[in-house]
Design a protein that fits this description.
The structure is a single chain. The protein has one domain. The protein has four helices and no strands.
């Protein structure tokens, strides 16, 4: 993927990491003839973060209810950290996979 493709898709790649609404905006704005390989990569990474966030939220809720260990609720910040890391990669025009979840799927 060349530098001009990355430059054209930089904004939408960053937007894809801003909550689920940003993910949907980036997805629908790059369909059809405006498809950008760089944006598509970051949309996939953002989708993985969203799915991980749902899984962690449900799991942590159950674990805190069962065990009563409230410190487990800090695990809910993992998707936020991954979102910031992904947005930084998009801003720096990198197409690096995210740690742990980048290779899934």
């Amino acid at each position: 993927m060349d530098q001009s493709t990355k430059e054209q898709g930089k904004t939408m790649a960053i937007v894809s990491y801003i909550t689920v609404i940003g993910l949907l905006i980036a997805y629908f704005s790059t369909r059809g003839d405006k498809e950008n390989e760089f944006v598509t990569f970051h949309i996939g990474q953002s989708l993985r973060i969203f799915i991980l966030g749902v899984i962690i939220s449900v799991s942590v809720g159950i674990l805190v209810s069962v065990t009563g260990i409230a410190l487990l609720s800090y695990l809910s910040y993992i998707p936020l950290v991954l979102m910031v890391l992904g947005a930084m990669n998009a801003n720096n025009l990198k197409d690096e996979k995210l740690p742990v979840i980048g290779n899934i799927g």
